[in-house]
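Escalation from tier 1.

The customer reports that the assembly of two entities below gives different structure tokens on two consecutive runs. Tier 1 could not reproduce it. I'm attaching the input and our single run for tier 2 to review.
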Amino acid sequence: MRYRKIPDETVRRLPTYLRGVLVLSEKGLKRVSSKRLADLLGINPWQIRKDFSYFGDFGTPGVGYDTLKLQKRISKILRLNSNHKAVLVGAGNLGSAVMAYGGFSRYGLDIVAAFDKDPKKIGKKKNGVTVEDVSKIGGIKKRKVDLGIIAVPVEDAQVVADDLVKAGVKGILNFSPRHITVPKKVKVISIDIAMDLARLPYYMSAG
Amino acid sequence: MRYRKIPDETVRRLPTYLRGVLVLSEKGLKRVSSKRLADLLGINPWQIRKDFSYFGDFGTPGVGYDTLKLQKRISKILRLNSNHKAVLVGAGNLGSAVMAYGGFSRYGLDIVAAFDKDPKKIGKKKNGVTVEDVSKIGGIKKRKVDLGIIAVPVEDAQVVADDLVKAGVKGILNFSPRHITVPKKVKVISIDIAMDLARLPYYMSAG
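Tier 1 run:
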């Protein structure tokens, strides 16, 4: 089955929908209405119906959407229907939190290796993964890793990004509050915790 | 000056613009073109020009936008032109990373207190802030705190959210991979690290 071209804004909401659908599936729900999903995710029900209309109309009025079908459809569009391997660079507080975070496997993501430059951290185990010397990061090429997570201090972020790209990583989740430069074919998503906190006051006064 | 109603999608991009403008201002740039900002942020230049058109046309063709004016305008719209106080609950790995993160003050945000229930953490200092007993969280009411950051294990997230709301917090940044329920007047932004990583494969195969 071919889908109509899905607009960027809709794609941006898909992971949020997937998260909601997974939460409801895990609770045993087989069907969900756009209203219920809307309440859970804080998105307008009409927006949800419009977004879902782009990838096939498997919702039934008055009955709702099939959660399992939704989950499979969205996973497929997001290319999460096959597994992806990720490596973490930086095993400090943030890196340790990422390792302990869990919830990656539900999206088909595995953190298979962790690296640091600090001899005190190398060799330590974090959630079943042993921290390796960052100088050996090139070795991940053989392990078919396609995702990298940067959780190092800001001054090391670019060097680590370069190393990850050299090692064949195609996507980077960047926690350092700094813009990193990578070749066009590599996709970067940056998480700036301070900026996320800075989003709140607008909505606080609006409500 | 009154602005036209700014669409939600534009508002959602404003913190990203603010971040970019701050980075360029800190480098000493007085003017920036939509093209330059586009390259820095990975947003289309036409999208930037369209978004900026909602809050006054202070860009000059061929010269660009005044970075300081942009910064002030966006800060004002986002209600970041006055300071906001935040508290952190959960001083584990993630909480410690948040405290060490820095970069909050650039948005006018201050983390003024941190709480935990673990006696081993209470009394310890993290980036100049002493971790207090979470049972005393009600005390923040007097300190005019309006933001809360939840960095506790998933099973404690809802209780902490309830405590924060009772203590008068109007906005919550939730790091626990769980939906928390709060009164309508309180705004929640959730950060799900696993979900952010899950966004990458779509763009990797598209590029």
